[in-house]
Design goal:
Beta-lactamase; eight-stranded antiparallel β-sheet; 427 residues; single chain; 17 strands; alpha+beta; 30% helix; 2 domains; three-stranded mixed β-sheet
Amino acid sequence: MRSALPLLAALLLAAPLPAPAQERAATGTDLRIDKARIDRALADMVASGRAAGVSALVWKDGREAYFGGAGLADREANRPMRRDTLVQIYSMTKPVTGVALMQLWEQGRFGLDDPLSRYLPEFATMLVQDGTDAAGRPLWRPASRPVTIRDVLRHTAGFAYGDGPSPAEKAFAAADPLGLDHDLAEFGRRLAHVPLLFDPGSAWRYSSAVDVQALLVERLSGRKFEEYVREHVLEPLGMKQAGWTQPMERLDRFAATYLLGADGKLVREPDAVTRARNFPRPAMTMGGAGIVAPIDDYMRFARMLLGQGSLDGVRVLRPSTVRLMATDQLDPRIADRSWLPGKGNVGFGIDFAVRTGRARTPDENRGTVGEFFWDGAASTLFWVDPANRLAAVFFVQTKPFQATLHRDFRRAVYGDAYLGPAGDEAP
């Protein structure tokens, strides 16, 4: 027995001990980027007529793992999709705004559960519909509780986001708070007089809340929102060309936007370049949209998030703040989540969707539990996958939003059968 002990010890030392599930999930060693598979997926998006041009950039394990493009940024000019092509990212602006506001939270300027009206008094009295009268006109009552800043960050405030069937949405359309001739202060004054769609905290509804975040940045910092973001987010991260405004000499690098009709044909949308050349700059700098960027600039933003708030030695947020933003903030009792479940098995953090479980169906987007992401109206997409040390950015300019492009790109990155690293158990 005594002679067997050294042999037993040697065997124990040679055999690797089973890693805890969390540790195995963090390694992500099963994922390999197949460049040819991604190339084929991008080419098919163009060949199938769903996009005029696409590009994609994947960063993994501290280096660029893939860049590729297919098709044309501008069909009429026969201009290819390139790394320096400027793309309208629409709602992928929202996470940038969220980072700016959370910098101010780190400075102690506000609390997440503070009432919004503490900093924006115009929102002190918010109304919610309470049935209709005998003539069918809406009846209004005070909201059951104040809107909090956490509500504003996770889309549970009850704000509308355009016209729609409800009286609150009709009131939003009539007030036109997001009219481009308004500045953010005027936006806030108008929105504060629009009734809420529901009591704060009772449902999830995509909304103008991120423009309220932009107004908060202005009010709390004492700086114009665009100036603050440029000086505290874009410039520190080396995002040299991203912004709400572009110099005239860059306008010919814009990707054209194409509308995909019911007949399956792409038709060019009225040109943003022509508008920029012939119309004055709008007064509104939206927190929820408006940034134009090349793909490398947005990848720097994604890499900062992958680096837990830091990039190339520059810290923009604390690691704990990034983790907070990437944590599901939705109470399980919030059952009404509008179209959010269409994004997959997800919750919602602070200006990001957050994957909370493995894909439930074969058609659901591939990805990893713990990833966080968002997209834009012209079908752009980005995500950060900490378990695989991966960030991905996908650029395209197709409207209306084409979810199949995201499905196909994610499958090309992960593989069709991917469910996540070992130890990443289904809920």
